[in-house]
């Protein structure tokens, strides 16, 4: 997604593992950073992949309700989520509609 087109990927929120608790390791960023350590996926892991794309800057703020995030610049944002099971073969998307 080209920055030149005016879009950005949210960096302070991540996807995550799902198990006994809703938010577990590993935390999965929605962008790639060379400095970040590689996370090795293993069969049996269940992951929530949650990319968020903004029109404008990537910065977000937490709303007064303590739950909803908003863009710092007040522009539009889109959030998409799938839950994926890592298997020994192809991953299984658990949230197919």
Brief description of this entry?
The protein is mainly β and 97 residues long. It has strands at residues 7-9, 15-17, 24-28, 46-49, 52-55, 60-62, 69-71, 77-79, 82-85, 92-93.
Number of helices: 0
Q: How much is the radius of gyration in Å? A: 15 Å
Care to count the β-strands?
A: 10
Which structural class matches the secondary elements? Answer: mainly beta
Question: How much of the sequence is in beta strands?
Answer: 35-45%
Query: What are the segments in which pLDDT stays under 50 over at least 5 consecutive residues?
Result: none
Report the sheet with the most strands, covering strand number, pairing sense and barrel closure. 5 strands, antiparallel
- Compressed to H and E, one letter per element, the order equals EEEEEEEEEE
Report mean pLDDT, rounded to a whole number: 90
The amount of helix comes to under 10%
How does the overall form come out from the CA principal axes?
A: globular
In the sheet with the most strands, the strands line up as 3-2-4-9-10
Give the N-to-C terminal Cα separation: 25 Å
Description:
The protein is globular, with a radius of gyration of 15 Å. The protein is built from no helices and ten strands. The mean pLDDT is 90. The protein is an all-beta fold.
């Amino acid at each position: 997604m080209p920055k030149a087109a005016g879009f950005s990927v949210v960096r302070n929120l991540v996807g995550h593992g799902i198990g006994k608790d809703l938010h577990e390791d590993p935390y999965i960023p929605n962008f790639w950073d060379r400095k970040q350590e590689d996370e090795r996926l293993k069969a049996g892991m269940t992951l929530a992949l949650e990319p968020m794309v903004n029109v404008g800057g990537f910065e977000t703020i937490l709303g007064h309700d303590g739950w909803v995030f908003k863009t710092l610049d007040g522009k539009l944002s889109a959030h998409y989520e799938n839950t994926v099971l890592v298997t020994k073969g192809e991953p299984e998307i658990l949230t197919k509609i």
